[in-house]
Automatic annotation (TrEMBL):
InterPro entries: Phage_Mu_GpT. This is Mu-like prophage major head subunit gpT family protein. Residues 8-296 form the Bacteriophage Mu GpT domain. Pfam families: Mu-like_gpT (PF10124).
Amino acid sequence: MLITPQVLSALFTAYRSEYQRAFTDTPTDWQRIATEVPSSSSSNTYGWLGQFPAFREWVGDRVLRDMASHAYTVVNKKFESSVSVPRDAIEDDEIGVYGPLFQEMGRAARAHPDELVFGLLKAGLTTTCYDGQNFFDTDHPLYPNSDGTGTATSVSNYQAGTGPAWYLLDVSRAIKPIIFQKRRNYDLKAMTKIDDEAVFMQDVYRYGVDARVNTGFGLWQFAYCSKAPLTADNYAAARAAMKDFKADGGRPLGVRPGLLVVPSSLEGAARKLVVKDAEGGNEWAGTAEVLSPSWLG
């Protein structure tokens, strides 16, 4: 095949089609537990985390309550995945051999947020959130006043144990437990000009995907982690703890735990606990959906 700019343009169109088809067809789970937030700069600061709007009877003038503010910043990171196609392969009409490679690039790009989001969830025991504590912790501060003043008491959203971690989440709110922040989308680009350095020096055409994204923690009150055995008693304790979570000032948050996230080793136990009805004898049947993403192991 005679390589011309038109041929290279048509080739990129074909490869981009393979990439986009795989990107579109790849199922993902991260949207179940994360809120996507657009970013227009190098980072986003979520000073409103920890603020929970409340209503009061309107008598007289409005009451503007001071709220505690937090400087929780998520800095965008750059990610890339690149491949090269030998010029000889194009000259010899072997371009179809590389179609699956671009399909895999599309799949990997689509799944990358899954990898980031569930990776952060796993790191919740050792990674801080907006209040300065680890996201899953036994010492989250709860203040007696809505402005974050007074002597704090400690609140736990973690149950210690020696087994694999499982997570109970409230994903019914606009703000989910994880934030997925996107500055630049996953786009396929090509470097195929005849005077490109790689073409001249290495006789290859380069293709790559890049994005600017990152993840951060939302509200710890909407998540609970346990490393104790996944039993009815421990599940009940996790639900009770979450339903008792309050905002600063003591107002109940109305948490509704409804998603049980487990590694593959606990999927069977999770489904027996909240899916199987046992002929009406399982009081926890239907109280949560089960999600077992491969990224948790």
